[in-house]
Batch of 2 targets.
Target 1
Amino acid sequence: MSSGLFYAILGCALFALGLAATLLLREALRRVLAFNVMGSGGFLVFVGLAQRDGVVDPVPQAMVLTGIVVAVAATALALALLRRLEQTDAHEP
Amino acid sequence: MNADLVFDLVLGAGLLWSAAGALLGRDRYGAVILFIVFGLLMTLAWVRLAAPDIALAEAAIGAGLTGALLLDALGGDSAGTAQRGASRWLLLPLAGAIAILLAGALRGLPAPSGELREAVSAALAHSGVSHPVTAVLLNFRGYDTLLEVSVLLAALLGVLGAARDARPARLSAAPLLQAATRVLVPFMLLTAGYLLWAGAHRPGGAFQAAAVLAAGAVLLALVGMLGGWTRPALRTRLAIAAGPAVFLLVAAPSFERTLLLQLPPQHAGRLILLIEAALTLSLGFILAGLFLALLRGDTAGDGQA
Amino acid sequence: MLDVASATLMLLGAGFFLAGTVGLLRFPDIYSRLHALTKADNLGVGCIAVALALQADGLAAGLKLLLVWPLVLLASATVSYAIAERARALGVPLDGGAPDDAP
């Protein structure tokens, strides 16, 4: 098994773990963590599959680089919205 | 079993263990720390996949910045609420079933065709840079990068709008700290500049340089030398807008030819450097802003790190 | 020979990082966590920097790698001082103490 295929399968496992956790966990913070784990799993599948014959492929690498930065922006926005939610709940009668 | 496979197996086990610990552990603080560990192990996985650009970005942005955001979001409450019984026991079997389905689908795929790889190698000489990932990011798929910067800008606007605590983000204004910062920040600027320039012919580039720049901006803000994140000043706004603006300006001439962002080969190297410099500035401020605008200035909890 | 030294140093560095992370997870309050984090992680970075510098291609690359260590030391000292000072100003207690017991 090439290392690319190994990491693609590992990525599947991480994606599945993250998906199940996003669906089933209750705390909002854990769901944000789970979403990030899902994202990382997806990135591993992306690059791992493209490189499963062992040759480096720059196109999925560039896309994953973009994906990581967008994921952090989404996480920041999610945390900001969560905080507004907490504050709104706190002010509720 | 050769040494590579052993390393991969151990790394894979570490990744799964830290992810499970982050998601299923009882204590929220421990969960965030394990998530940071997960991010750093992912960095090693990227190195194994021969993707040093991704490894740099994952370490700085994925593990570092995201970890800092999450630690700040913990606030004062670090005890977790335990999962209810039924759904907790459902999680691992469900995850296992999905994983088996996905992995099974992978086995049936034909061998990769390598077309894109060859197309990139063939066109690399005309792209203006010699590092393929940078060429793809800034030239062949420049449109994606332009949209990505716009998405980040939108996220920053959302964060500035949603997090309306007007307290300035400052840890401590001790003179010793400011002196040490005055030594550190020039090194950070130098490193960012080097990463930016090096991106043309070796792993590096705008995103990695922006991460270092963001760290410098966060450090300055935390010791009280750079303020005003909830109401950004004009200079900050200009800096943030510079990246997308320059990118659009470079893209504009190609509108008339109806092929977006086609860089003329004789100028491509210089144009890419220009775009990357503006992007580094913008992304650095955006990433720093995402963190600083969220920082709770008034945490009176048990002071998580 | 060089490889053996590098490998030993890397393992040592990894061990320091592991110890630092365990401390980060298990220590009860922010001051002891910062203590574990900065001490152990800085040693870990130092060991790994030297291990990699031994494997570097030339003098310039090796020196660049070694430069990482003092920079990390300075950065982590600065930031941990800022964090600890802020925690003290907020009145964060030492482990188990009431909020007035802040040092």
Target 2
Amino acid sequence: MTVGRLVLIPALAFLALFFVYPLAAILSESLAPEGAFSLAPFGTVLTDDFYLGRLWFTTWQAFASTALTLALGLPSAYVFARYDFPGKSLIRALTTIPFVLPVVVVAIAFTALLGPSGALNEALQAIFGLDEPPIRALNTITVILLAHAFYNYTIVVRTVSALWANVDPRSEEAARMLGAGPLAVFRRVTLPQIAPAILSSALLVFMFCFTSFGVVLILGGPQFATLDATIYNLTARLFRLPLAAALAVVQIVFTLAVMWTYARLQARSAVPLNLQPQSSALRRVRGRRERLLIGLNFAVVFLWLGTPLLALVERSFRGAEGYGLGFYTALESNTRGELFFVSLSEALTNSLWFAATTVAIAVPLGTALAFAVARARGRRRALADALAMLPLGVSVITLAFGILIAFDTGVLDLRASWMIIVVAHTLIAYPFVMRSVLAVVRGIDERLREAAATLGASPRQTFRRIDLPIVSRATLVGATFAFAISIGDFGAALLLSRPEYATMNVAIFRYLGLAGAERLGAALAMSVVLMLVSGLGFLLIERLRYRDVGEF
Amino acid sequence: MAAPETPPLLSVRDVRLRYGETPALGGVSLEVAEGEISAVIGPSGCGKTSLLRVIGGLERAGSGEVWLDGRRIDAVPAHRRGIGLMFQELALFPHLDVESNVAFGLRMQGLGGAARADRVAEMLALVGLSGYGGRKVHELSGGERQRVALARSLAPRPRLLMLDEPVGALDRALREELLAELAVILRSQGLTAIYVTHDQEEAFALADRVLVMQGGLARQSGRPEEIYGAPADAWVARFLGRTNLVAGELTPAGDGRARVRTPLGEFAVPHAGAAAGPVTLLLGDERAHVERADDAAGAGEAVLTGEVVGRAFQGRRVRLRVRSGEAELSFAVDPPPGGGWRVGDAVRVRLDPASIRVLPPEG
């Protein structure tokens, strides 16, 4: 089909240039740092205690974060899957907010709640008359795990409750009638049926935590660093590129293995369960125990998801002389004459401009690939699938690092260009566009196209009049995802941007690096603005998404 | 109800249940004797499934009592009641193969090793699925699933087996085949069973006793012949597929008899204590004698005239639809020699007076 080719060829060229080539650049940097083959970088990375320690920390904190997220998410998944109660859809929507918030906002929100001058410490000091802040959570592993769980809670809730709601409750009743007690029913009947969703959401959470960068960098302080944070340090602060490249290769191997497992699990969970339409499995809340269960669930959602965000907003208005707009107005004026000062309006403009450009490239790219994947057959299809999804398996920092070292010479020197950030954002965002569109394209009934053909439509007209209108909404959802991802990105922007192109995320991070209550106040205020901007994107996604199509 | 010497295995006493605002059971009682198969029939939504759920312990009744083996079991959780339930939707475990499905209840009893394997093999053989143990549930046909579900509920030897529309989802031929097998299996295992269905033919084919339910209430219970021959009211009669219901006015005539005046004419009936006033007459359709209206025999007791408006050949007999006045009646008759009745024929129907029942008035 000519229309398809016309869009597909530039799409594949884009991927080859900006994804495959940077990966090759990483590989060559790690294996041939000075142009000659050498295993020294890998030798260092794989034997040195420091790097092994980073790898170990990255792995175990990801495990611990995943376990905590599951512990908090599974009870909620059960409540959402099995009970019907007033306000349910609103509460479910609220649980999604953390996931769409930029990492920096999450980190600042936890600082606002648990930091030395945070809301909780201030309240405790006031109540008990303490001189010192009693909670010292910042720069501990605890706050890292809490933030990771905060961030990923909704992945577990949504993925697991979607499957759980469709598990036939009668299979549980059948087990009871066969003599199984409550525990046996759960272990032998319920758990095996929801296991694919638990496993796949756990793997996704593990992936996100394994490649966590912003949370660890901001909340963890100098003593905690994941592989990504280490790659960033080696690149941006120590300029030891071969070591960074070797570490990036280790990282890629690891994340691709996790991604591959995830894809396999997704395919396997398509084994036909005895799926029930959701409504038949929903129960009204009855009795005190059930009310307690639901109440506890609400309490977790509101206290644990809500308080950091409330604290963020509250602190942003709380200046030295009480509440006011001081932090916000200060965002516009460079009162201290700082060299790299970025005003709120500049940062906001940069962020919006990058986001708009990202959408403009990622949407056609993702849509073209979605159609190509949907139509490919046999071995081509596996290839198209893999190529299209691969960037999801490479961490943002690694992606940005690859782009940085690939485009550093001659006509391809993009380091000083703002385009380099858009390229990185597009690579992160287009898989989401593709997945969103692909789900709908695959769902189009072939008979619609056949009907159009019998009515005299050429393949081209069919595409224009049938396929495109049907996927337009999914494309819009994908566009919103792309926007939200670009607005929310921290890692790529930090590694790639020149000071004059600082996005809001980068600006907030810079404020944090500077001492003083006013700088923290500026970070808080800009975080609130950033939260509102990304919140808008989230609202759009919720409004536009097809019911039940594409959870993640 | 049951034999007076031995107490019934199961006794349900005045059970009431509501789902939120909706009453599902409005005070239902039921007794099932050891070794007996009891059918509960009624249209969908009549509360028959709710009754099973209360007996099984999946729902807690609002009031009333459930006794099993002389023990009150209202507070006993479902998994300790030793009652089997075969679900209408079967509810086979989708993540387990056939063998593990059948073995589930045995596993819960702590039965392991060879004993469990033997029992599973025995059950699979009983339902004709030997060698299917390794199959996945979703690879089975509808009839095979049904058999697995039956084997699964039989395996742990429940004191009482409840079957909720067990063949309802199958097509007609398969349904009859499975029903016949089911009857053999239930009898051969000496099981006490409650069989729920909306199809009275299934119930009559299988059950020793039948309970008819409607709107969460028990309308009538008894042996199938009793219920079919003497339905308690017009609703039960219609539900059982009986036709020929006619409204009338009863007048006692002394010496144990009464007369009922209807638009079709007057009928003499045994006077079983019914008070004077409106009644519904159920006219038997089996032992009626149909003759041409111009035959000279003339009118008499339990005779009505009308016009044939339809005929359906049913093998040995012919079912005639006869319009008489406003009413349309139906009779199964032996076709007379030399051709039968045609649509449009004027006929006279002589009813067997013993087949006429007086029911309470409708409405």
